[in-house]
């Protein structure tokens, strides 16, 4: 990767995540374009370009970064509500990174090599990873639906859809571990999950719940291991 692109991204990460206190964020959300913290935040990003590049010759890059950063952040503050705050956060970051790539391309003739998207191996990897997310969750739900324990109103309630997302994360991690030849990490992941689950199951004193969790865990790990090994075979 080009060093100029890395430096601009580094400046963005420091400015947005290290040098932007939560009080500044709250002030921008409350006062919108009247917030002095918005302009101070943009000034921080401009200054960081000079600091990281160690040269005032990068003033054009710094100015463009500042202007685009202001526009993106200003639009975010104007349209942000409590309901869309999380979505706008990710849109905001995508727009910032896109503007960084654009500026890098204009001033440093940068070029991103995306030829790997034309390779079969890339699409096999993407297909394998995606299959282990929602498709596997739905398949597992269909398989173990008949063993679903009755809901007890007195039992502690878990976070909404937490189990589904935990399963997706563990399968994706297994996918990464196997494709990078770290099979021992799969065992560590299974052991870690078992430890966390042990306390809940011990307190529940419910044999059906224990068996249900065990079936779900082994099924999730089993599917992830099989798909990961098949993917590894196809891209070899």
UniProtKB/TrEMBL annotation:
<feature type="transmembrane region" description="Helical">
    <location>
        <begin position="123"/>
        <end position="148"/>
    </location>
</feature>
<protein>
    <submittedName>
        <fullName>DUF3307 domain-containing protein</fullName>
    </submittedName>
</protein>
<feature type="transmembrane region" description="Helical">
    <location>
        <begin position="168"/>
        <end position="192"/>
    </location>
</feature>
<keyword id="KW-1133">Transmembrane helix</keyword>
<keyword id="KW-0812">Transmembrane</keyword>
<dbReference type="InterPro" id="IPR021737">
    <property type="entry name" value="Phage_phiKZ_Orf197"/>
</dbReference>
<dbReference type="Pfam" id="PF11750">
    <property type="entry name" value="DUF3307"/>
</dbReference>
<feature type="transmembrane region" description="Helical">
    <location>
        <begin position="212"/>
        <end position="235"/>
    </location>
</feature>
<keyword id="KW-0472">Membrane</keyword>
<feature type="transmembrane region" description="Helical">
    <location>
        <begin position="88"/>
        <end position="108"/>
    </location>
</feature>
<feature type="transmembrane region" description="Helical">
    <location>
        <begin position="38"/>
        <end position="56"/>
    </location>
</feature>
């Amino acid at each position: 990767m080009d060093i100029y692109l890395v430096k601009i991204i580094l400046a963005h990460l420091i400015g947005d995540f290290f040098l932007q206190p939560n009080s500044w964020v709250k002030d921008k959300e409350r006062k919108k374009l009247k917030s002095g913290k918005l302009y101070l935040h943009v000034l921080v990003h401009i200054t960081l370009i000079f600091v990281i590049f160690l040269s005032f010759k990068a003033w054009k890059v710094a100015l463009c970064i500042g202007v685009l950063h202001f526009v993106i952040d200003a639009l975010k503050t104007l349209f942000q509500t409590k309901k869309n705050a999380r979505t706008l956060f990710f849109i905001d970051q995508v727009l910032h990174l896109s503007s960084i790539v654009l500026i890098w391309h204009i001033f440093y003739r940068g070029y991103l090599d995306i030829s790997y998207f034309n390779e079969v191996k890339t699409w096999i990897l993407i297909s394998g990873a995606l299959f282990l997310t929602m498709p596997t969750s739905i398949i597992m739900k269909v398989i173990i639906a008949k063993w679903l324990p009755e809901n007890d109103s007195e039992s502690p309630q878990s976070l909404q859809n937490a189990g589904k997302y935990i399963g997706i994360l563990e399968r994706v991690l297994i996918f990464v571990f196997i494709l990078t030849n770290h099979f021992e990490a799969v065992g560590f992941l299974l052991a870690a999950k078992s430890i966390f689950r042990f306390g809940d199951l011990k307190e529940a004193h419910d044999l059906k719940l224990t068996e249900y969790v065990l079936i779900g865990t082994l099924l999730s790990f089993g599917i992830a291991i099989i798909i990961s090994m098949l993917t590894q075979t196809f891209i070899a």
